[in-house]
């Protein structure tokens, strides 16, 4: 009987009841999802240089804004990255970079292929 009376007691203005808590939690989750979706619509792109032979092939990339090593990129490609450009060599492997802006220069040797956002591009073309 005492518990039943406690449940029926009006809550104070300062207390947050379970229903209000769940409603607020849902609003936060929806806000976080919208922010993540908005962040994924930025102008950031990914360029991947995929080596197709065991023999290392050199490449150079220059962009209008900034280029940074992508996830899973080894130390060699990090060392050749400075602000707007990246250069390195790749054998049987992949070098990934995130970049903003446009590619102004791209040179990739015969033993590799360049991809921007998963689409193969001409390794001697500039945008």
Topology:
Blueprint: H1 2-8, H2 18-39, E1 44-51, E2 57-63, E3 66-69, H3 75-79, E4 81-82, E5 85-90, E6 94-100, E7 103-108, E8 112-116, E9 119-121
Antiparallel strand pairs: 1-6, 1-8, 2-5, 2-7, 3-6, 4-5, 8-9
Give me the side-by-side strand order of the main sheet: 3-6-1-8-9
Number of strands: 9
The rough form would be described as: globular
The percent of residues in helical segments reads: 25-40%
With helices defined by DSSP (H or I, 4 residues minimum), what is the helix count?
A: 3
User: How much of the polypeptide forms β-strand, as a percent range?
Assistant: 35-45%
Secondary structural class: alpha+beta
Distance between the termini: 76 Å
Largest sheet: 5 strands, antiparallel
Mean pLDDT value: 73
Question: What is the H/E order?
Answer: HHEEEHEEEEEE
Radius of gyration computed on alpha carbons: 26 Å
Flag low-confidence runs. 20-41
Précis, in short:
The protein is of the alpha+beta class and 127 residues long.
Quick tags:
3 helices; globular; 38% strand; 127 residues; alpha+beta
Describe the structure.
- By secondary structure, this protein is of the alpha+beta class.
- The chain is built from three helices and nine strands; from the N terminus they run H-H-E-E-E-H-E-E-E-E-E-E.
- The chain has helices at about 1-10, 20-40, 75-80; strands at about 45-50, 55-65, 65-70, 80, 85-90, 95-100, 105-110, 110-115, 120.
- Mean pLDDT is about 75; it is low at about 20-40.
